[in-house]
Design brief:
Elements (H helix, E strand, L loop, with lengths): L1 H19 L3 E5 L3 E3 L4 E7 L4 E4 L6 E16 L2 E14 L3 E5 L3 E4 L2 E4 L3 E6 L10 H9 E7 L10 E9 L4 E9 L6 E6 L6 E6 L2 E15 L3 E5 L3 E13 L5 E11 L3 E5 L15 E10 L3 E2 L5 E11 L15 E3 L3 E9 L2 E14 L3 E5 L3 E6 L4 E6 L3 E5 L8 E4 L4 E4 L31 H29 L1 H22 L4 H20 L8 H10 L4 H17 L6 H21 L1
Parallel strand pairs: 2-10, 21-28, 22-30
Antiparallel strand pairs: 1-3, 3-6, 4-8, 5-6, 7-10, 8-9, 11-12, 12-16, 13-18, 14-16, 15-16, 17-20, 18-19, 21-23, 23-26, 24-26, 25-26, 27-30, 28-29, 31-32
Keywords: Membrane, Transmembrane, Transmembrane helix
Pfam family, one: BatD
Protein name: Oxygen tolerance protein BatD
Length: 589
Amino acid sequence: MKLRLILLTILWLAGQIGIAQVTFEAKVSKEKLGVNERLRVDFEMNQDGDNFRPPSFSGFTVVGGPNQSISNSWINGKRSYSKTFSYFLAPNKRGKFTIGQATIEIDGNTYKTTPVNVEVTAAVDKPKDGNDADLTASENLHLVAEISKTNPYINEAITVVYKLYVSPRISVSNWKELDSPKYSDFWSQAIDMKQLKIENGEYDGEPYRYVVLRKTVLYPQKTGKLDIEPLTLSIAVDVPTNRRDIFGGRLYSTVNKRVAAGNKTINVKPLPQNGKPADFNGAVGSFDFQVKTNKTELDATESLEAKVVVSGNGNLKLFDLPSLSVPSGIEQYEPEHNEMVRTNLTGMAGSISDTYTLVPQAKGKYPIPSISFSYFDLKTETYKTITSDEVIIDVKTGPDRSTSITNTNSNASVNKQVVTQLGNQFRFLKLEANLEPKGADKFFGSTAYWLAVTTPLLAIPLFLFFGKKREERRNDVRGNRIRKADKLARKYLSEAKKNLGNQKEFYIAMERALHNYLKAKLHIQTSEMSKDRISRLLKDKEVDDAISIEFISLLESCEFARYTPSSNSAMEQDYSKASRVISSLDRQL
């Protein structure tokens, strides 16, 4: 009897231990993903609970969820229960992130999950997630990076053109840039895209529409295999469904799709060593070279300008000009560097120059010796050297060159430099002072005296009047709040106002102003500023729904206006609307 009682007690305790063992854990679909992929996070528990609170998902945007699923089964008399909250996340940028702790209350106790680390890399060529609409969008939407040359020489210009191809089966309503390539091994220059133009073309032999989003000129600065990172976009795609409305029209489903141009690799060749001149300084392209002066005849102590100029096509900003050498007897100053270079799809073109100021100190003829400039010609793939002509400077008048003084300590002869002041040396001196005798007039009793006496008395009523107005304004709480809010709006929107008429800069400045205002008022970072989160925060602060909706619509206008043309009147309306919304928000916050 005692043995049976002991066994029953042991079994009961084991059952209680099994029942009391609560598990609550976080699981991710992958620990490493591309910036154009999605992440699924499951918070799973083996007992039912209440007051589930997810983490903030910093660094991600919630694109789906929470989805709740419950599994309850009996196998061989043993009950199995699980409850799961699922979220679908889209990363905002590359980096290492932590999915924080979620909490749940079970039987009066609070349980927390263990944080999970996730790494977000550059975009992958083929994302591994997606539903049917995603698959349709993926098959009919392509972002392509076209490289002008995959095996250039070092410092040879290549062009990367990013094109977005859209099939007629779908339509694109909006897009924004998520991740820009970092050209760490290149000198890069973006070509200004004043207006996007939709064109007809082909992709894999099928008719497509495409738009050129970005053009970039690159000059590789290293040899070997160099990677060009992908451009990543977030695009709102309208995909047709099998459903129709009451009029028979096809219904569309909007999918937020992330596309990337894919990694590109180029093989950069070094310049040949055979025939490389000793004075070669890294110039690659096709150039002209000359040394010229603005005058060849002058008097001693007068100045002239000598200009060393290289013009043509090539890496003009990436090498130094040869130095000018002048004979003794001419004083030479540090050169002024000037660049007149434009960058287009063929690379840099224009001219660069160093302008020297020269001052001869004595009479005579001074030869400025010729100098040489070497460059690598891409057309012939050979080195070429250009030598300038010798320039003779004829100094007509001045002290004789043989005039010198002897340094008795070192027995060295030093040329005496004669400096002549041109023009009137004493033009700053007043030769006619026009002095007038000072009379013995007394101050007391004069007009100035009576003005000095009566002015303070007359000012007393003014001080009283302005003091009363100041006190009234200080007591006007509502008016002060409105004036303070208007001043704050003007402060944040000052940069946007300066760029009225320049669509791209205006909307970038206005979006930055709206974000900075939220950072100052709500103490959140720019990476956390999703539209849903902003709406929730403003609702928590009891801001009117109309003001919240207007604020979100302004942010959407900033995103949309980057890619579509906008008139000056529309920009002025958006500026006035932003000023009014910030003022209203500030009064309510």
